[in-house]
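User: Quick sanity check before I run a bigger batch. Here is a single chain. Can you write out its predicted 3D structure?
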Amino acid sequence: MASGVLHPQQRLPSGLNFKDAFWDDQNKGVDIILSRLRKSKDTCEEIKKLYELRANIEQDYGERLLKLAQASRLGVFEENSFAETLSRIPATLEITARAHIDLAQQLKDHLEAPLDGFLRDQRDMRKMV
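Assistant: Done. Predicted structure follows.
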């Protein structure tokens, strides 16, 4: 496999054991495992922060677009089909604004919150050890 991860039914090549993936000549296996766990925790926290910032940006952008749509008076000085065409722009802006606000909420609900729960569970497990 390209990722280097073995499927449970696959066997390691002869001479290699699971324990050999963590232990070195100075028997620093626990340090190696702890280091990998720490780096993984840091990576999860970085990803969570990225989702949080992205959700904030989407929320802010959506709210600003919504204000623009509500304040728009396009088409009031025009007549006929051109006025009708211009009057559709604020409605389209409002739809786009609501899509960005919805995306912000989805990022929070489906990515940020579960990752936060995972990090909290991992922190609680580390406290028990």
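The chain has a mean pLDDT of 85.

User: Great, the batch can go ahead then.
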